[in-house]
Specification:
Elements: H1 3-9, H2 15-21, E1 30-31, E2 37-38, H3 46-51, E3 53-59, H4 69-82, E4 87-91, H5 96-100, E5 108-109, E6 112-115, H6 117-121, H7 127-147, E7 164-166, E8 176-178, E9 189-191, E10 193-195, H8 200-207, H9 211-219, E11 222-225, E12 231-233, H10 240-246, E13 254-258, E14 263-266, H11 281-290, E15 293-297, H12 302-317, E16 323-328, H13 330-336, H14 349-367, E17 373-378, H15 385-397, E18 402-405, H16 407-410, H17 416-428, H18 443-455, E19 459-462, H19 464-475, E20 506-515, E21 520-525, E22 544-545, E23 551-552
Parallel strand pairs: 3-15, 3-16, 4-14, 4-15, 7-10, 16-17, 17-18, 19-20
Antiparallel strand pairs: 1-2, 2-13, 5-6, 6-13, 8-9, 11-12, 13-14, 20-21, 22-23
Helix pairs in contact: 4-17, 7-8, 7-10, 9-10, 13-14, 14-15
């Protein structure tokens, strides 16, 4: 069966029964139908958060289809529950961009899925829509102020960096001219759209600790300058109150379930190649307040998601994982060893061996954080016994505990070996993680430490534009913010064509953006974009619905 057929074949429990298993009374549930509910923030208990076991799932550099971090997360969470550990899975919400693009949804796969799969992958509880509306309200207020004759702040339209957003891959909206149509249309200016997952509002929602904190962060958003060069913030436009009203429900984490009837919290969804790539602080703390173990993931490879999870999210939330699970697949390692995408189902031990350095680089960079690392080999039906043997022997030489995981085929019972290793690793954890850099390091030093320690790069090269922007942000007083490097997810370098473990390469920073509300600086490496485009054959072409309302083609 396909993923959607598997999801549709399972009878869901009522969400109040899932909540009851976490000792949540029905009075605390804000129902969105019978199978999903919002949870109030007063369920978060900081004392429980401090005692919890947070497990981070990340991956090697992925192929375009991804290597199954979410599937592994769900399978591991189900397996921990089979081992009588009270485990809660905490994930990001899917973006419609990948759903209708190339990667598909983000609800897991096979028998390791969260349900209702269709709802989660589509409109869910409306969180993305609320973020989009809050983002675009600020954009409308900016243009309205530029047009106003009585309340004009003197914003120079050429300096406005705030863009509108939409939760869809649409390259035609990357660069546009707005406000055409004469005087009634406003002051024409160049602008564009980001995908909603790349909006600073998404980053803010996921890094906020309360509704009050969310409102303050929204007010701190830098939007551009006046004609005199003075920075203008959202609070100057009195935008933060209305924006927060639009987000009052979106800030509450969402409770759903796995196919095996275990609890899952899904909240927020920033991309890891252009933002921090992790679910919300509030979602993670909610899970840690309700369960003994929390299994969560960070987007794309460890060079992006895991680095930002630790250096940005965990630092801001005062969290630290007890163990890190590094997901690897035989197909991805063969890809990094030179095998073509169309040939990855063919046995090729030599290509597998040639791709091992990518796994080694990620192991080394994760070990720099001082936390226990476990490798999970996400097994595919096309993997051969010879390939599995070679990979397991290599992992043994790396002296990293490794398990074959069969969550896609067997659900929780296919991940019990991994669960046992994770339980042992968490018990062995000696303390909090070691950050890659200190916040008082200069911006350039922070970038260099990430690029050398995590990517394995030699130098960081800045264009004249980037260097000028960096110095300006330091003069503005933002030099002690963490950095959130935006780069391709397809390579450890900033060149997506350099697979495997590149050597003797530099990271080229073409420009900077700043997210003063979310609280980080964004060096943009290579040709990374904040509004993706659709592939030649989008997944949308295969998605349909019949007269009974049954959806097919969604995965």
């Amino acid at each position: 069966m396909t993923d959607i057929q598997i999801a549709q074949s399972v009878k869901e429990k009522h969400i109040r029964d899932i909540a009851a298993g976490l000792s949540i009374s029905e009075d605390h549930l804000e129902y969105y139908g019978s199978n999903k509910a919002k949870l109030p923030l007063n369920l978060i208990e900081e004392a429980s958060v401090k005692e919890g076991n947070l497990i981070l799932v990340t991956a090697i550099t992925p192929t375009p289809a991804g290597e199954g971090k979410t599937t592994t997360c769900i399978g591991l969470g189900d397996a921990l529950n089979l081992r009588k550990k009270k485990a809660v899975i905490v994930l990001r919400e899917p973006s419609l961009g990948p759903v209708f693009g190339i990667k598909g949804g983000a609800a897991g796969g096979g028998w390791s899925q969260v349900i209702p799969m269709v709802d989660i992958n589509l409109h869910f509880t409306g969180d993305f829509h609320a973020i989009e509306k809050a983002n675009n309200l600020l954009a409308a207020l900016i243009d309205n102020n530029i047009q106003s004759k009585t309340r004009n702040l003197g914003i120079d339209p050429r300096t406005v960096i705030w863009k509108r957003c939409m939760d869809m891959n649409d390259r035609g909206l990357r660069h546009i001219v707005a406000a055409l149509g004469g005087k009634a249309g406003g002051i024409p200016r160049e602008t564009g759209f980001n995908i909603t997952a790349a909006s600073e509002i998404m980053a803010i929602l996921c890094l906020s600790n309360s509704l009050e904190d969310l409102q303050e962060k929204c007010g701190d958003i830098y939007v551009g300058d006046t004609w005199e060069g003075k920075p203008v913030y959202a609070r100057d436009l009195k935008a933060q109150g209305a924006m927060t009203v639009l987000l009052k429900d979106a800030i509450k984490p969402n409770l759903v379930q796995t196919l095996e009837g275990n609890p899952a919290i899904i909240h927020g969804g920033p991309f890891a190649n252009i933002a921090q790539g992790t679910n919300s602080i509030l979602g993670t703390k909610m899970g840690m307040s309700l369960g003994e173990f929390v299994v969560t993931e960070a987007g794309f490879g460890a060079d992006l998601g895991a680095e930002k999870f630790l250096n940005i999210k965990c630092r801001q939330a005062n969290l630290s994982p007890k163990a890190i699970v590094l997901v690897a697949t035989i197909r991805a390692l063969k890809y990094h060893g030179g095998k073509k995408l169309a040939e990855l189902t063919e046995e090729d031990v030599e290509a597998l061996k040639a791709g091992m350095p990518n796994l080694e680089r990620h192991v080394t960079s994760l070990q720099s954080f001082g936390l226990p690392v476990v490798i999970s080999v996400n097994a595919f039906s096309t993997d051969t016994e010879a390939e599995k043997k070679v990979l397991l022997e290599h992992c043994k030489k790396l002296n990293v505990p490794t398990a074959l995981s069969y969550g896609w085929a067997d659900g929780g019972k296919g991940c019990t070996d991994l669960a046992d290793l994770v339980i042992d690793a968490a018990a062995s954890c000696k303390g909090a993680f070691k950050p890659t850099y200190q916040l008082n390091d200069p911006i350039r030093t922070k970038m260099e430490k990430i690029c050398r320690t995590i990517y394995g790069a030699t130098n960081v090269i800045l264009t004249n534009v980037a260097n000028s922007q960096m110095k300006r942000f330091e003069r503005m007083g933002y030099g002690e913010l963490p950095v959130c490097i935006a780069k391709t997810q397809k390579s450890l370098s900033d060149d997506e064509k350099r697979l495997g473990r590149p050597k003797n390469f530099d990271i080229n920073i073409r420009e900077f953006e700043i997210a003063t509300g979310a609280g980080f600086i964004i060096p943009i490496a290579g040709n990374i974009l904040r509004m993706p485009g659709l592939p030649a054959t989008p997944s949308a072409e295969n998605i349909t619905i019949d007269k009974e309302g049954t959806i097919s083609g969604l995965f």
